Amino acid sequence: MKEFMKITEIEWKLNNRNFLNLFFSLVFPVMMLLLFGTIYGNEPSEFMGGYGGVDASIAGYICIIIAVSGLMTLPLTLAQYREGKILKRFMATPIKPLDILLSQLLVNTINTFIGMGLLIIVGKIIFDLHYFGNIFEGIIAFIIILLSVFSIGLFIAGVSKNAKMATAISYIIYFPMLFLSGATMPLQMMPQSIINISKLLPLTYGVELFKGVWLGSHLMDYTTELIILIGITIVLTILSIKFFKWE
Fold this sequence. Notes:
Layout: H1 2-16, H2 19-40, H3 53-83, H4 86-90, H5 97-127, H6 135-159, H7 163-180, H8 192-198, H9 202-214, H10 223-243
Helix pairs in contact: 1-5, 2-3, 2-5, 3-5, 3-6, 3-7, 3-9, 6-9, 6-10, 9-10
Family: Belongs to the ABC-2 integral membrane protein family.
Domain ABC transmembrane type-2: 20-247
Transmembrane segments: 20-39, 59-79, 100-127, 139-159, 171-190, 226-244
């Protein structure tokens, strides 16, 4: 346990030195919130289903933070460690390679929570953000989405032969999810062809689930989204274990 806490501390310091990680997980979502919040405000509108623009969009921005940690930071770091023989070297020390994996999951989870907390604080102070749902159900929805996205990241790390390949796969998966899942722009503003494409993206179901729970719906109102996200988590976790190599 002592070794795990020490390596987690080191991983946390390394994470905080990565400008791109911090920018896209902490700064970029807040910029999106400020930009679109300034444009659309947070007064209830018919276009947003009777909710304010910020209230209806905040769940998508939180999903962006989850996607950055799970699809960009996590797989790229693990792929770089494996390519640099770092995981192999740890096999000769009291620190196990599994400790590295678990510490990465913990660090990225903490970073996601910090990003979400910062986003909510800014939204509340500037736009009087509201949460209409059940807190307990909101936490469950968040965890389900987090596990689903992180399982995709672990799968990318598992099948990638090197950091370059992991980067390419992560970008190919991340950016369509960023712009076509409803996380940045509401799907109702997009043409039907884009909406059809969005149904192929896992994050779309995460955004729909979290947005619904945030605005007052219940988890069981989104059984399709739950089944898809939990199914992705189970399948890709199993495949990640099968394909992941420490060296």
